[in-house]
Structures are given as C-alpha cells and as structure tokens.
Amino acid sequence: MSPPLLEARGISKAFRGAQALSGVDLTLREGEIHALMGENGAGKSTLIKVLTGVHPPDAGTIQWEGRPIQPRTPHEAEGHGISTVYQEVNLVPNLSIADNLLLGRQPTRLGLIRGGEVRRRASASLTRLGLDLDVRAPLGSCSLAVQQMVAIARALDIQARLLILDEPTSSLDEREVATLFSLLGRLKEKGLAILFVTHFLDQVYALADRITVLRNGARVGDYPVAELPRLRLIEAMLGREFHPVSPATDAPRSDSPTPPEAFTPLLEARGLGRSGGMNPVDLSIHPGEILGLSGLLGSGRTETARMLFGVDRPDQGSLRINGAEQEIRSPREGLRLGLAYCAEDRKAEGIIPNLSVRENLILAVQAGRGPLRLMGRAEQETLADHYIRALNIRTASRETPIRNLSGGNQQKVLLARWLALQPKLILLDEPTRGIDVGAKAEIERLVASLRGAGTAVLFISSDLEEMVRNCQRVAVLKDRRKIGELAGADITPSGIMRLIAHHEG
Amino acid sequence: PAARAAARTKPLTVGFAQVGAESAWRTAETESIKGEASKRGITLKFSDAQGKQENQIKAVRGFIAQGVDAIILAPVVETGWEPVLRDAKRARIPVVLVDRGIKVSDDSLFATLIASDFIAEGRMAAEWLSRKLNGKGNIVELQGTPGAAPAIDRKKGFEAGIASAPGLKIIASQSGDFRRATGKEVMEALLKKHGTEIQAVYAHNDDMAIGAIQAIEESGRKPGSEVVVVSIDGVRGAFESMVAGKLNCTVECNPLLGPLAYDAVEKAVAGEKLPRKTVVPDRVYEQSTARASIGSRQY
Amino acid sequence: MKDDPTLPRQPRLRAWFPGGSLLWPLAGLGALLLFNLVFATGFFRLELRDGHVYGTLVDILNQGSKAMLLSIGMTLVIASGGVDLSVGSLMAISGAVAATAVAKGTVPFGAAVGAALAAGGFAGLCNGFLVAVVRIQPIVATLILMVAGRGIAMLLTDGQIVTFEHPAFVFLGNGHLAGLPFTLFLVLLSLGATALVMRRTAAGLFLESVGDNERAAALCGISGTRVKLWVYAFSGLCAALAGLVATSNVKAADSSRVGEMMELDAIFAVVVGGTSLTGGRFTLLGSLIGAILIQTLTTTLYNLGLEPAIAPVPKAIVVVGVCLLQSSRFRGELSGWLRSRRAAA
Amino acid sequence: MASLKEGRRVKLRHSRSLPLLATTGVLAILYTSASLLYPGFFTVRVFLNLLGDNAFLGITAIGMTFVILSGGIDLSVGAVVAFTGTLIASLLTRGTPPGWAMLLALAIGSTFGGAMGFLIHRYELPPFLVTLGGMFFARGMSFVVSKESVGITHPLYQQASDFGLPVAGGASLPLTGILFLGVVALGVTVAHGTRFGRNLYALGGNEASARLMGLPVGGVKIAAYALNGFCSALAGIVATLYMGSGNPAMGFGLELDAIASVVIGGTLLTGGAGSPAGTLVGVLIFGTLQTALVFDGRLNSWWLRIAVGLLLLLFILLQRVLSRPAGARHP
Ligand SMILES: Nc1ncnc2c1ncn2[C@@H]1O[C@H](COP(=O)(O)OP(=O)(O)OP(=O)(O)O)[C@@H](O)[C@H]1O
Ligand SMILES: Nc1ncnc2c1ncn2[C@@H]1O[C@H](COP(=O)(O)OP(=O)(O)OP(=O)(O)O)[C@@H](O)[C@H]1O
Ligand SMILES: [Mg+2]
Ligand SMILES: [Mg+2]
C-alpha cells in the first residue's frame, strides 16, 4: 500500500483552560473521501486548523507524503497542496465574487491583475459547480449559500492534493449539495484526498469512504463506512451504548409527574417566530417544570431561547407570561418579567472577563435595582460567598477576575448570577457544555433543586442523557422547526433520535 | 491718490492674506486694514490663514486667480514665498508686504515692505532697560515663535542694545511662542530655577509679558518694581498693565498699517516706483506716559 | 484580542504588571522625580510666599490641572471602549462661551459658567449619540467635533482673543485656597465626586461591564447605549471645566490655541495610568498619576531649557514605550531576552 | 436560489460606486454654486490651482487611503511631511544634490511608516496610539533639524517649481499638480489593479478571513503603512516645491484634513471599501471650499472647519445608511 498522503500523530491542542484536542491521530489517503464526525465542540474544526497552520499544535507531528511538515499559516499549507474551506465562511464580503475566488492568486501581467482573465476564470470555476453568477457582484450581497459555494470554488481553484471542507453543506439546499457531491466524486476519481465535516448523517453515508470520530477532543476511532452503521456512529459520537431495540437500557428518567395541564403555564408561546431565524413554534412551560429543547446542531434551540428572552425580537406569534399577553423587546424586559437567560457562548455573552467573581455574580441583580441603589459591600459579599459555597465554585477568592477561573467554574458563576435573581423561568442554553463530569453533576443537582422550588426551567443540551435525566418534557427541533414533543416515559435518547432521524423535513 | 482712485471707473479690489488672529496686535492690524478699505471704497478680500503658511500661499494664489488689483501679504515666516510671488509677478499684480520682511533672491517680487524695524525695537527696549537698571542686572528673555522674523530680530536688536552695558546679562532665554499661556508657563519654570536672581524680563511681545507678569505675581514678587518688565507691541492690555504699575515699558510696534498699506497699493497700481521699505516709526511708552495716552489708543 | 488564548503567557513579568496596577505610572513618575532631584536644583523647594505655597511641584499640579480634568472624563470614555478626540476643541468652545458672556458684563458669572458647562455637556452628548445610537466608531464620531468645534469657538469669539478681568472668573484658574492653587481643589473635587459616583453607585460596575463585554452586559439588562451617552456627555462636561480653567489661567479666551493637542495628553494620561484602551477596568487615580507624569515631563523639559518645539520627541518615546509594555507579546519577548541575557551572564 | 438575476439585482442596490457618485455630486454642486456666486471662479486656472495648491494634501490623502482601506489610521502624516520637507531644505543648503536629498527623504519616510506598521502588527497596538507617538516624534525631529523655515535657492528647484504644463487659455498645470495626478493614477492602479491592492481590501474587509484565505496579512499591513510613509515623504517633497522652502511648522493638522478628505471621498473608515479616486474628489471638495472662501473674502476662515465637520458627518451617516443593508449577518 502506498504511504498515506497525510498522517497526523498525537495532535494535542489546548486553549486557555480548555483541552480542545488530546493526542489525535488522523490518516488520509489519495482518492479517499474521509468524513470527520463528532459532536459540537468535539474538536473537528480545531484539528483542521492545526493541520493547516492556523493554530500551532502543542504536541504531535504531521507527515505529508512521508515527510514531516509544520505549516505556520494557511498560505504555507496551500503551498504543500492543502486547500481548505473553514467552517466560518471565510471570505471578504466587500469584494466581488471574482476577487474572492482568486484573491492572492490572480493572474497578472507586469504586476497588474488581468481583470478579464480573472472574471473568465472565476466564471469557469463557478460553472463547474453549476452556478451562473455575475462575478462582479459584491459577495456580501449574495446569500449565505452562494457565499459557501464561492468558498468551495475558491478551494477547488488551486491544484490541491488534499481538499478540506469544514461543514460545507450547512447552508446549501439539496440541489446544491448534489452538485457539490458529484463534483467531489469526480475529484476523488482524479486521486484527490478529501476531508469533510458534516452533521448530516445521510451525506456521510452517501459520500464518505472512511469516518474518523472525535469525542471531547480525543479520537474514538477510524472506520470504513461499511463497518459503521448509523446507530453505531451515533454511539461513537455520543460516547454511550445505544440500543434502539431495547429502550430498557436507556437511562432511567426522573419520575416526577408533569404538573397538571390545568395550571396556567408560566410561559406560553403561540406561533412565535422570526423570519430568517426561527419558524413559528408553540411552547409552554409550567412552574416547577423542566422543559428540554432538543435537536441537532443548528436546529434552532439557541434561536428559540434568544427569541423568548427578547435578545432577538420575534416578528410573529404571541407570548403569554402567567396568562397575560406580553411582548418582550429586549433582555431588560425579559428580566423584568422574571425571565433569566444563561447564554450558550460563555465567552462572548456570559462572563465579563476582567471583573471579579463577585462582580460577575451580582451583576444581574444590581442591574435590576438600577444604577443608583448599589448593593452594600457586605450584601454583595454575602451573596457571592453564599453561591460560591452552594455551587462549590473553585476560586482563589471572590475577588479573583473571572477569566482566571476554569470554564466549568466560570459557568457556575454565571448560573449563580441568574439564580441570584430568583427568576420564575430560567433559560439554560448548554449550561454543561465544556465542563467536567463533577461540575456537570453539580449543575444537574442544582437544576433539580430549582424545580423543587417552583422555578420553571428551559433546558438545552446536546447531551441526550442529560436531557433524559433532567426533563419532564422535551420539545424536539429540527431545521429551525418544532417537530414534536416527548413527555414522561417517552423521553429516551433513542426516542429523541428516532424522532429526528425519521422526521421528513 | 484720492483723486486718482476716484478717477477709476471701478473701485480697487485688494486681497489681504493675514496670518491669523493669534494676538491682540494681529487683530488690531486686521481691523486697521479692513477699516481703511471700507473708508476708501476698496473691495477687500480677506483671508485668515489660521497661522499656516500653506494656507497663506493658497490664499495668494486664489487672489491671483481672481484677478485682484493688488495683494497685501503679512508673511508668517521669512522663507518660502518665491514660487507664489513669481506667479503674482507674472500676473502683474503688485504685492505689498506688511509687518515683516521675507527672504527672496529677487527684490522685484514685491512692491514694498511696510513694517516696523524689529531690530530697532529690540535695541530700544534694551536701551530703556539699561537706563532703568543703571546698566547692571540679570535678564530673562521670552522669545517669540522660533523662526519668526520678529523673534529673530527682536533678539538680535536687544543683544546689540545691551552689548554696551557689560553689567547686563541674559541669564535665560526661552521661547514662549508669542502666547500668554506659554509665556506664563515658561516664566513659572524660570522663576523656580533662577528665583530672585531675576531683575528684569524682556518679552518679545506684550502677550507673553502679561503671562509672565501673572507668573511673577504668583511667585510673590512685584512685577514692575521688584522685577522690571519690558516688552514690545504696545497693545491695550500692555497699557492697562502699565497703568496698574505691573509693566514698566512697552516699545510700540504700530499695527495700524492700513493707511500706509493702501497708499502703497494705490501707488503700485498706478505704476509708481516705491521705496523698498517703509519703516513705521515706533516709540517707547513707559508707565509715566501710559495713563495719558491710554485713552487715545485705538487697539 | 486581549483574550486570545493562543498568546503565550508570561507569568513572571505579568506578576509585575497586572492590568490597572498603579505600579508602572508611579515608577515612571518616581524616575522622573529622581532625575530632577539629581539634575535640577530647587525642583523640590517649597516655600510660603504671600501665604501661598510656592514651588515647582505646585506648578506641576497647577498646570497639569487641565490635563487631569480632561483625563477624568477620558478615563470613563476609554473604559467604555471608546475614545474622545474632541475634548481640546470643546475646551475652546467652553472658554469662548464663558469669556464672551463675562466680557459683556451683563450676564451673571454663574450663568456664564453654567452656559459653558452646558455647551460642553451638550457637545459631549452629540458625540455620545453618534457613538451609542448611530454606532459610528468613536474615533470618527469625535473627530467631527474635533474638526468643527474649534471653528465654532472661533465664530463665537469672532476670531478675536476675548480678554476679561472678572474677579470670580479669574479666581477659577488663578486663585488660591489655603495657600494652594484653587485648580487643585477643583481637580480633587471633580475626581472625588466622580470616584464617589462610580464606586458608591453601580455606575462604575455598569461602565466596566459594558466596556469589557457589551453583549454580556446587555443580557444582564444593562443598556450600553445609555451608559455611553452618559459617559460622552460627562467627558464633554470635564472638557468644559478644563476649558474654563485654561481660559481663566490667562484671563483670555484664545479660541485658536486653547486646548490644542490637549486631547492627546489626556489620552496618554489615561493609557499611561493603566486603563486599557480596549475598555473595561479603569482607574481614575492612575489617570491622575498619568496626567501628573506627563506634566512633570513637560516641566522637566522646560527646566532643562529644551525648546518646547522639541519636547514632543521624549514624550513620544515615553508613550510608545508604555504602550509596548502593555502588549503581552512584547513583554514576552522582553522577558525572553532578559532571561537569555541572564543565562549568558 | 442563486442565479444570474440575483447577482444583478443586488449589484444595483449595493453598488460600490454609490458613495463615489454621491461625493462627485457634492463636488459638482459646490463647484457650480461657487461659480455662480463668485465671478472668475469658473476658469481653467482656478481648477488647475485646485490641483496644484492641494497637491501635498492630496498625496498624503492618497497614502492615508491605503492605510484606512487596510482598517488602520495614521496620524503622523502631517509631521512626516514637515520633517521630510525641512530635511530636504536643510540638506540642500549644505550642498547635497537634490536627487539624493529626495531619495533619502523617501527612504526615511517609508522606513518610518513601515516601523510604525510593524509595531501595530506585531504587538497588536492600536494604530491610533502608535501613529500619535509617531506624529509627536516626527514633529519634534523636524524642529531638531531646523528651528525655522529654510529657504531653498537651488536653481533646479526654481525651475522645477516654475514649471507648468500649459493647458488652455494661458493656464498651466504646475509640477505639483502633475505629481498629484500621477500619484492618484498610481494609487488607483495599485488599489484596483494589483494583488497587493486587492489584499489590502480583503484585510480591511475582514482580517480574520484574510488570514484564513492564506493572504500575507502582516506583510500587507506593514506595507500599507510604509506606502503611506512614502506618500508623506513625497508630499514633503511637493511641499518644498510649492513653497520653495522647508518649514518645520508646516502641515500642522494636515492629518485631519487628509482623513476628512478620505472619508468625504467615500472610503469607509472601518476599512475595506473605498478608492483613491474618491479621495481625489474628496480633496477637490476640500480645496473648492477653501478657494471659495478666499474668493468670498468676507467670511471667517473658520467656517471651513465647520463645513468640513458637517461634510464629514454627512458622509459618515451616508456610509452607515448604505452599508447597513449590505451587511448580511454572518455566523
Ligand atoms: N480560538 C479558540 N479559543 C478558545 N477556545 C477555542 C478556540 N477555538 C476552539 N475552541 C474550543 O475548542 C473546543 C473545540 O472546538 P471546535 O471548534 O474544534 O469544535 P468542532 O468540533 O468544530 O465543533 P462544531 O461542530 O461546533 O463546529 C471547543 O470547546 C471550543 O470552545
Ligand atoms: N440569521 C442567520 N443567518 C445565518 N445563519 C444563522 C442565522 N441565525 C442562525 N444561524 C446559524 O444557524 C444555526 C442555528 O442556530 P442555533 O444556534 O439556534 O442552533 P442550536 O440548535 O442552538 O445549535 P447549537 O447550539 O448546537 O449550535 C447556527 O449554526 C447559526 O450559526
Ligand atoms: Mg467546527
Ligand atoms: Mg445553541
């Protein structure tokens, strides 16, 4: 057998606090389409970025055709023949389509770009992808799908030996996906190696030859597609035994009964939606109830939570809180109505990195009181100390800047921030993402105790077992649409997955 | 000249490129030139360069393009006028310089210069001071903007003036930029450094002197008696200070150049040959004469 | 980028240079004072004259008062993640308003000061509107008033230098209280009041949250828009006060020159004082020390007899040096270099 | 679905030439009103003067356009113009041949700009602060070179500054104007016709993307500042031609005029959109206002600053309105 085209061994990468990759191996061969699978945050994009010189690895080696390489920039990787489309559509919206396609490698004569030639070549590459566009139009004015196609066309434009596509299909429609796949098939025939990431299982089985699965930054395995049926793949990704035929092995779910329907729900949404964001959904949550929101990546869970809290304003449907019609136009209004939202992106929307644990913790309570009535120092400290003890937050002191805490402890401080408000409804978006097992358990205990105190909880998690353990009801989303609801004993990982797998969007 | 002006069918149009409005002296000059123009029925195009030579050059070129009959220029610095003045000459527009000279290789580039003799002013200040201090004492000099002709010449004249009195010593000389605020700050620093050694202050203009007087007062000494202050320009503020006994002497540098300037303009337009330089006579005012003349001061 | 996890960490130097520490500005000030102790005779001499404390140190505080006043407002603006370039021009506007009002003689002094402060506050509010509501970058939004403001001031004074002898107005910038310059009390009062409002209400907390992470603050119900409006208006108010002091100092409103380049001194004071230009945590005391440091530098240069025109050179070197020290990458390279030096020795 | 139609329709709505059109419209309106108000304004000579008188401002503004396109800003340009002008003038008085003096000035200007770019890129310092330091440094250094304006008497210089390209009606385009137009032409070519130019737009548009697209981001950024330094030095040379002297106090506040011209010319201060051609129009607007003020001869010159401030506001608001719908949400 010929040596592999690319062979990565023992790749590790840590970001401040978080181990994104630990000792990952990856082998890619010529003429092979290789799928990289794994849950959200499993480390797929990070692996790709390490391979292509965006991030320097902390440890590990990369062999290219048997020789070690260490690309330091994407530019250098391209020099070796590795062409990449990163997950974030990484183009420049203010330049034309043609410019974007050929940026940095435009044909020139005497140092001057040959405009006609650029446009001709750009049109030609787009035609190969079945696109007929005015290549002079600014890219920013095109739909996300077109932008993604242009990014792919750009990657295909160079004579690459390895093509890496990180979620290339997330915003393409079926016909575009079909065009792309037939093109990828032709490239494979020509001997190109292709690594691609997608969350659509059908696409993996339609296209890939081999699958590498990552979980929590580690490699689970490397399998030929034929040897890995869908459910085994999902098991590998989620990291648990998963037997669809015997629900008995599903984790036992909490057996507390759902509050009687007779009570007025705390929150009731009817056809709440946002054009361009979320299709209309119906939801209701009762006091003392934990409603789970389940779905795959990009199914619209975060979008729903943001809409309920007023971060993104819904433009259709109605919302009732405690039976009274309400319109929530901003987080301030949401807070006033007794809602609290613990955002998914801890760094961008959660912590105030340079402020102390204490300040981060009291911020929402203080904001509710307005700027003039500052909580007394003693009151602040009591509150902070209370939650530091109650949630077992590990910090040097309550005055430590929160950025110095580990991710899990940061998350607990944020939870404490919202709990201190004593909200009637708390929206928890991936509260356990990226934190260790112990902290996870503590947070789950906390959620359960909230419920006991009569607080309503909207719980979002990608960890299905966690959903099963914690929720009385689970609304399942797919493609930004609610496709069903499970309650009581029906809530099992397989139940949720079956709903997603068999629902025809 | 009045008769000739009346004989013209069209009133004269004159462009005046002023430096800016950085001091009371400057605004007095502007007012004089503006006032005299309306008195004589001359259309005046006025441009304030905000202290920038490049703006002045642009203004002069604008005047040339506009086809004015003559240009009055108060140059902000001495060098850098040749190209634009050659333009004016080609367009046959006479240029009358006011209040300071310029360095050019070709003297025919301007019609005449109407200005005080800065060197003489410096010398007069020195002579007065020498008499006042009986030829002995330590002097602090507050210079004008570095590179400006009045600053250079007033320094030169003053140094020449005290040369005859070996007892007079300039113990410090720094730029106060012709500004009150800077004059005050620099004086404060010098007072700290030299303390009671300072017997006299010579400022290149009244504004700096007024700033320095404030600094001296704040240091607890009495300007006008313990520290002799002499300056140049003779603006109203200086007279007020003299009346108050804080400033000892100011050498007038007359900014009321309007009448002289338009006389020169009218002659130049008529093709008359003008002297290279018209020196505006300056005189010394001291405390004893200040009260009598303050009422008649126009600026 | 301040939180880029890919940057290497330098524990050793970092321990010496925590963000917001007063150590570096104080060290710089100390070095300057030491220099003067050795090379400038009489720099530290203080004496009582006419019941006024008199000496170079008092001068530094007195002359630095304008930069200090500006830096109070600038600190808050920078803490909000912005910057205010217009303060120098606003100084000119406030001086022009007050001086023309006082020179007319018909307007009571309180009203003149009130009008000047109101003008500054309103102009600041305009800046705040452009930044917070229209969402224009702060540098650009405040550039507009920086360019136009001085023109407005010139129009107010009709291009003249307006002089006045109003005793109360003159006292503002020249008077003494308990033997010390009144401006000193003005600065301490403004600083004290600001610090009190910032630390005794939640305003400081809200401001730091907005500057550090506006999106997170918004989810807590803190309106970044409102915070920024206030902060720019306040900066305009501080600029107006500084303009009054500068105008009173020389008993004349010189619209074309007053406050010229002062915005830079104020920004430098804040940055040197340890408040990061990226926003968030701020230290008013640090800015005060920064302003004193810059004024001490200026006075030292006067003392050395250096031309005012050349003075910017050492200033530039100090400022870029301090900025470099705040870059973690530079600190990393520096400590690496120091280590290799030590290893070689 | 993406189609030919989509590309076309969108192009009309978000046409990138819209800001340029708006700017040109404003220039036309200003020029026409001035011509109607002031006799003698509508002449070839006045127009050519506009180019010649604003040449050093224009050349600085073109350099500034590159920096702003890259997403940065440079406050040091006015001081660099003064420094190089003074340096050349004092070198000439010491007998250095003009060619060498100019080459040295250009080299110093480019190096100085490049050094600031290096600090900005490598240590991730705010451009605003670094170039502010640069401004202080260069201004102080020009006074170190000479405390006063230095006259240039070199015969070659006299010929050069008197040279004019005859155009029409006895009016001629001075050498400074020719240089300005040359720099504009070069600037437009570099911005739109070279890889470097396109990379610059990409960098200003989205730096992270530019990096992921494999563009040499650091090199482009440093080169933009170096190019700007080069333009400032060239503007310094033009200033010596214009005035026949080197003045250490000149160009005070020039950076603001340059930035204002760039913005009025339709270049986005956030970077990534605009063009040197727009900057030419912006400079002409600036010059027209100033010339009209001289022609009027009654208005306080400070109206110019207010007018520029208002124009800035107008164009920034215009840019906001234009760029808002184009900014599709990116995840
Ligand atoms: N620049 C960064 N700084 C800090 N942490 C990062 C950075 N990039 C990634 N991470 C962290 O590394 C982990 C792996 O992220 P990565 O983007 O590789 O996941 P992924 O498998 O691509 O997920 P997805 O399916 O959502 O794209 C995550 O916890 C993420 O938060
Ligand atoms: N307006 C928009 N334009 C383009 N893309 C969008 C927009 N809104 C959301 N998206 C993208 O669509 C997907 C749906 O987002 P959402 O965050 O609601 O999903 P989710 O189910 O919460 O997934 P997860 O939290 O696992 O990422 C995301 O990938 C997001 O990046
Ligand atoms: Mg990813
Ligand atoms: Mg989500």
Pick out its properties.
heterotetramer, B: 299 residues, six-stranded parallel beta sheet, six-stranded mixed beta sheet, 11 helices, 20% strand, elongated, disordered N terminus, D: 331 residues, mainly alpha, ABC transporter involved in vitamin B12 uptake, BtuC, binds adenosine-5'-triphosphate, binds magnesium ion
Layout: helices, strands, pairs:
The complex is a heterotetramer of chains A (505), B (299), C (345) and D (331).
Chain A: E1 6-15, E2 18-28, E3 33-38, H1 44-51, E4 59-64, E5 67-68, H2 74-80, E6 82-85, H3 97-102, E7 108-109, E8 112-113, H4 115-128, H5 144-157, E9 162-166, H6 174-189, E10 193-197, H7 201-207, E11 210-215, E12 218-224, H8 230-238, E13 267-274, E14 278-285, E15 290-294, H9 301-309, E16 316-321, E17 324-326, H10 331-336, E18 339-342, H11 346-349, H12 357-369, H13 377-390, H14 407-419, E19 425-429, H15 437-452, E20 456-460, H16 464-470, E21 473-478, E22 481-487, H17 493-502
Parallel strand pairs in A: 3-10, 3-11, 6-9, 9-10, 15-20, 15-21, 18-19, 19-20
Antiparallel strand pairs in A: 1-2, 1-4, 4-5, 7-8, 11-12, 13-14, 13-16, 16-17, 21-22
Chain C: H1 11-16, H2 23-39, E1 47-49, E2 52-54, H3 56-63, H4 65-79, H5 87-104, H6 109-133, H7 138-156, E3 162-163, H8 167-174, E4 176-177, E5 180-181, H9 182-200, H10 203-212, H11 214-219, H12 224-249, E6 252-253, H13 262-272, H14 284-303, H15 312-326, H16 328-344
Helix pairs in contact in C: 2-14, 3-14, 4-9, 4-12, 4-13, 4-14, 5-6, 5-7, 5-12, 6-7, 6-12, 8-12, 13-14
Chain D: H1 4-13, H2 18-37, H3 44-53, H4 55-69, H5 77-93, H6 98-122, H7 127-145, E1 150-151, H8 155-162, E2 164-168, E3 171-174, H9 175-193, H10 195-205, H11 207-212, H12 217-243, E4 245-246, H13 254-264, H14 276-296, H15 303-326
Antiparallel strand pairs in D: 1-4, 2-3
Helix pairs in contact in D: 2-14, 3-4, 3-9, 3-14, 4-9, 4-12, 4-13, 4-14, 5-6, 5-7, 5-12, 6-7, 6-12, 9-10, 9-12, 10-12, 13-14, 13-15, 14-15
